[in-house]
């Protein structure tokens, strides 16, 4: 009989992370810096090669941080569909992004295909890939306790940090409702996989309407629960908390910070400054345009 | 003694409604009381209890007349936050009550808002988790827990605010049998250990509560019809049944015997009923009858043709969860089958595989000879319809007509239905489901939940599936509505449709299903006529399903020659002869 090793995992916003992951040793503040830097990088960088490398680095980091990848794989599949739309757009409507001296590389009937437009398409797509992978990495290693305690240290108000954390938390809940809705529509003969590619964006409406309706209903119920749990308790308590005179349960028991965090944050700040300088000198421009 | 809650001539109307939801309500609830508020859907139960912590009138717009005082505080002049410290409230759906992603943080949310210091919060959280038996799960995400554990988390979060009064609004209606039992145990310990001074429960399922509560209030159409101590409340069974209350089986039996002058009191618990009836048997005032009830219900003739043929079926979800482990099953055309078992036993997965929504990992499913693995979805759904538990997961059109046409349009695009047939099929589905003509152009989201469920069924039914699978047909419905839905499914069965229901309600299984399949851990544990399956208490224990109360009563009286496989009160009474 085989024996199974029990692995303790923590639920993150989007997935799970192994309890022994290096991500769990990081301070919540460091994770906020990771969020900011990793999302700024693809926006500052135009060169698709650097962005592609950065995207793959994020996936490698997910492995290193022992995040469960199963939940995030499908989002990369969605990116493949997105690639198709971007390239169809730049092939057929690429003139506006091809610059003043476009180079025609092919003709499809009366449509001229420009190399600069394709280069633009590559840049946009790879930037999306880098941004999505960065966000998925962050959502896969960050818990609600991390975000709540980091915001508390950053003196963000109790009301704002609760709403922000809940907003991130609802991302995972969307996911489960979306799957049920897909199954329910499939039971009435609507299967997105059997639809031609051009029809898929329209079919999404059949999923989105019930998804929005259910989300609004859940949001109202969550709001009622918050009221019932005294979220609008006397303002005085919240003011005390915001002035740091009163710590929260999460802030007191889940806060961590070490010298390594200082080193990582310093590195991220230096890297950010470096990126800005590189952009200023044109070192990260798109070579395909 | 000053009442904890005092309602004086209360009237309430929501801004968008024309009728008063609550009419002339007068209640006094004293400290230490355990009160159950019951009644059909839309009778105003939830609206009434929402006034106890000020959610009405502070978070809902509407018109209010009369006065509600909670521990002397007028709800109009007090804030919700102030009233929350006095009255804790847990709702029906535990999933929509979770704000944070760890059990302990969820429980800490309320006391933290009330201004407790972190160390105090830690102590309270630890206490609340201990009394709800969740200490070992404190690091878990509440969303990942079982139904019972989720609702226990919601109870812990409410208890952690240390309220004087706790209000539980249908806390078991969305739970499986084991979840219901867990919550009932917690409620019992709340009362016995005095974890909270006053308990108020809103509930349709009153079988277990009848043994615990001090007082019952029956609400209908916004009015109080009955407000009595528990025993007196159950003294007029016919009145309760007329007003949509599903009376516990032992109350119905003892009520009948009381009317015949054989019993002095109504029995509220199974133990009391066993003792009372044993005494009557011993005194020879009642005797086992020779009759067995004749099944007058007409069902479809079960044909030899196999509708569903499942062979060595295994299914593993993409995340590695093994849901089915070698299921073999044959369902013939015209059968009425119930799938039972606790959440995670594989019932829903099996049904979705039969409907072709999922494809088998290993093994095969044939529906009227069509292999679901290779048959395109539209062809399959023309033969197998699947109605989801929550109609809101599938409704998206802006009129009911378009909603009913949706499935047919998909079939049309694959040439599986003719265009000229569409209108007649819609009419037929409307007629069977009782959807009136004049609402066809209305928005489905504006309809009541019962009507939305009918629309969902009709939209599947219009595709004329020969096999209809309905997931939890009675969830969220009161007793009269549940009976209506089940009779409607029976009518479809009489018309020749094969019906498969997934349910946790044993009285529904006992009343309508001819065959029952009990599942546990991805396997079939029992499969046979409903009478045989529901009377096999030993094996059912492994599925965490409790047989109906009347079956347990009959089995306990086996030594007096009562049959072990009785499923309904009528059947039980038919097996007793009396002076």
Explain this structure to me?
The complex is a heterodimer of chains A (289) and B (579). By secondary structure, chain A is mainly alpha-helical. Chain A has 2 domains: 1-156 and 249-289, no CATH class; 160-239, no CATH class. Helix content of chain A is 64%, strand content 5%. Chain A has helices spanning 28-44, 48-64, 73-92, 115-141, 144-153, 158-186, 200-228, 235-242, 249-253, 259-280, and strands at residues 9-11, 16-18, 104-108, 111-114. In chain A, strands 1-2 form a two-stranded antiparallel sheet. Chain A has a two-stranded antiparallel sheet with strand order 3-4. Chain A is globular. The N and C termini of chain A lie far apart (60 Å). Mean pLDDT of chain A is 84; it is low at 1-5. The mean pLDDT of chain B is 89. By secondary structure, chain B is of the alpha/beta class. In chain B, 35% of the residues lie in helices and 22% in strands. Chain B is built from 22 helices and 22 strands. In chain B, strand 12 (306-316) and strand 13 form a beta hairpin. Chain B is globular and about 70 Å long. In chain B, the strands form 5 sheets. In chain B, strands 6-7-8-3-9-10 form a 6-stranded mixed β-sheet. In chain B, strands 17-18-19-14-20-21 form a 6-stranded mixed β-sheet, sandwiched between helices. Chain B has a 4-stranded antiparallel β-sheet with strand order 2-1-4-5, with no helix packed on it. At the A-B interface, helix 5, helix 6, helix 7 and helix 9 of A face helix 3, helix 4, helix 5, helix 13 and strand 17 of B.
């Amino acid at each position: 009989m085989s024996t199974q090793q029990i692995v303790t995992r923590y639920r993150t916003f989007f997935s799970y992370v192994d309890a022994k992951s290096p991500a769990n040793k990081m301070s919540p503040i460091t994770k906020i810096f990771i969020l900011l830097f990793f999302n700024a990088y693809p926006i500052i960088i135009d060169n698709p090669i650097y962005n592609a490398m950065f995207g793959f680095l994020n996936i490698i980091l997910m492995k290193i941080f022992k995040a469960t990848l199963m939940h995030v794989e499908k989002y990369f599949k969605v990116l493949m569909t997105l690639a198709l739309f971007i390239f169809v757009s730049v092939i057929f409507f690429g003139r506006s992004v091809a610059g003043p001296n476009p180079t025609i590389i092919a003709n499809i009937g009366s449509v001229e295909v420009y190399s600069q437009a394709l280069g633009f398409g590559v840049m946009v797509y790879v930037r999306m890939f880098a941004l999505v992978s960065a966000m998925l990495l962050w959502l896969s290693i960050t818990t609600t306790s991390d975000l709540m305690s980091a915001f508390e240290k950053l003196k963000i108000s109790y009301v704002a940090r609760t709403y922000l954390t809940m907003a991130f938390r609802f991302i995972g809940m969307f996911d489960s409702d979306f799957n049920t809705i897909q199954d329910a529509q499939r039971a009435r003969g609507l299967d997105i996989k059997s639809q031609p590619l051009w029809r898929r964006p329209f079919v999404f409406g059949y999923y989105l309407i019930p998804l929005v309706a259910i989300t609004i209903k859940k949001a109202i119920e969550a709001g009622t629960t918050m009221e019932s749990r005294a979220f609008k308790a006397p303002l005085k308590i919240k003011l005390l908390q915001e002035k740091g005179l009163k710590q929260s349960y999460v802030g007191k028991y889940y806060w961590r910070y070490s010298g390594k965090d200082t080193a990582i944050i310093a590195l991220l700040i230096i890297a950010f400054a470096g990126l800005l300088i590189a952009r200023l000198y044109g070192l990260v421009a798109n070579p395909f345009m | 003694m000053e009442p904890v809650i005092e309602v004086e001539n209360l009237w309430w109307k929501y801004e968008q409604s024309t009728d008063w939801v609550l009419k002339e309500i007068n209640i006094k609830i004293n400290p230490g009381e355990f009160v159950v508020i019951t009644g059909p859907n839309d009778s105003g139960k939830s609206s009434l209890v929402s006034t106890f912590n000020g959610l009405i009138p502070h978070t809902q717009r509407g018109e209010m007349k009369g006065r509600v005082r909670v521990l002397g505080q007028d709800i109009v002049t007090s804030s919700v936050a102030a009233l929350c410290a006095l009255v804790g409230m847990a709702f029906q759906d535990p999933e929509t009550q979770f704000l944070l992603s760890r059990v302990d943080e969820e429980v800490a949310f309320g006391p933290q808002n009330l201004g407790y210091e972190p160390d105090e919060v830690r102590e309270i959280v630890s206490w609340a988790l201990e009394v709800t038996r969740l200490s070992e799960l404190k690091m878990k995400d509440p969303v990942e827990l079982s139904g019972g554990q989720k609702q226990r988390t919601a109870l812990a979060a409410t208890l952690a605010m240390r309220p004087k009064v706790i209000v539980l609004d249908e806390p078991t209606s969305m739970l499986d049998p084991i979840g219901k039992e867990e919550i009932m145990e917690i409620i019992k310990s709340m009362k016995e250990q005095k974890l909270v001074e006053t308990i108020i429960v809103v509930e349709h399922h009153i079988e277990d509560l009848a043994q615990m509560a001090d007082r019952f209030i029956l609400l209908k159409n916004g009015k109080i019809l009955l407000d009595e101590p528990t025993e007196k409340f159950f003294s007029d069974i016919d009145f309760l049944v007329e007003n949509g209350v599903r009376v516990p089986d032992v109350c119905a039996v003892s009520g009948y015997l009381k009317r015949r002058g054989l019993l002095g009191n109504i029995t509220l618990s199974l133990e009391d009923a066993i003792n009372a009836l044993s005494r009557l048997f011993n005194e020879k005032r009642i005797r086992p009858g020779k009759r067995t009830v004749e099944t007058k219900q007409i069902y479809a003739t079960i044909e030899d043709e196999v509708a569903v043929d499942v062979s060595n079926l295994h299914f593993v979800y993409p995340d590695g969860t093994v849901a089915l482990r070698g299921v073999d099953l044959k369902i013939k055309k015209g059968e009425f089958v119930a799938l039972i078992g606790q959440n995670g036993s594989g019932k829903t997965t099996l049904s979705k595989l039969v409907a072709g929504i999922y494809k088998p990992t290993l093994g095969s499913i044939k529906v009227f000879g069509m292999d679901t693995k290779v048959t395109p979805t539209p062809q399959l759904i023309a033969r197998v319809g699947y109605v989801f538990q929550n109609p809101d997961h599938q409704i998206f059109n802006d009129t009911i007509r378009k909603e009913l046409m949706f499935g047919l349009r998909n079939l049309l695009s694959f040439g599986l239905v003719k265009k000229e047939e569409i209108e007649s099929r819609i009419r037929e589905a409307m007629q069977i489901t009782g959807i009136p003509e004049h609402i066809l152009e209305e928005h489905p989201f504006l309809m009541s939940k019962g009507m939305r469920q009918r629309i969902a069924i009709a939209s599947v039914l219009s595709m004329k599936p020969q096999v209809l699978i309905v997931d939890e047909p009675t969830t969220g419905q009161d007793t009269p509505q549940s009976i209506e839905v089940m009779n409607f499914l029976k009518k479809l069965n009489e018309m020749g449709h094969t019906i498969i229901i997934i349910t946790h309600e044993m009285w529904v299984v006992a009343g309508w299903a001819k065959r029952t399949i009990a599942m546990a851990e991805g396997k079939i544990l029992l499969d046979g006529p409903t009478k045989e399956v529901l009377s096999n208490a030993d094996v059912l224990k492994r599925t965490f399903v409790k047989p109906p109360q009347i079956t347990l009563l009959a089995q306990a009286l086996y030594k007096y020659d009562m049959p072990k496989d009785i499923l309904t009160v009528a059947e039980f009474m038919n097996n007793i002869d009396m002076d």
